[in-house]
C-alpha cells in the first residue's frame, strides 16, 4: 500500500481468535500516479467497516509490498470486499498500479504477542 513512514512501529494487537486476516502481497508498476491518494482513502474507508481490527504493512527492499488486514468475522471482510469505492480502487490497481499481486484470506485460530518492557 503506501510507505507508511508516519505509521507506529508496532504490529496490530493479538486479538482473541477466531478472526480473519486478508494478506495482500504486491509488486507495483513504475507509474504510481494517483496511488497515494487512493491508498489513503482506502485506509480511511476500511476503518468504517464494523469488525475491522487493524492493518500491518511492510515493504521489502526488492519492492514486494505486504499488507495484512485484520477483521473480527467473515461478514466484516465481506463488507470490505464488496465496498463500491474499494472495488473501483481494485479495478484501477489491476489496470495501472500492480505488476502482480496475490490475496490470501485465512481464519486465525491462534494469536499471541510479546512486548519488551521499557528500560
UniProtKB/TrEMBL annotation:
Enzyme class: oxidoreductase
SUPFAM superfamilies: Dimeric alpha+beta barrel
Annotated keywords: Monooxygenase, Oxidoreductase
The organism's place on the tree of life at top rank: Bacteria
Pfam name, any one: ABM
Documented EC number(s): 1.14.-.-
InterPro entries, A to Z: ABM_dom (IPR007138), Dimeric_a/b-barrel (IPR011008), Jasmonate_Hydroxylase-like (IPR052936)
UniProt keyword Methyltransferase present: no
GO MF annotation list: monooxygenase activity
Stretches assigned to the ABM domain: 23-92
Protein known as: Antibiotic biosynthesis monooxygenase
Organism: Streptacidiphilus jeojiensis
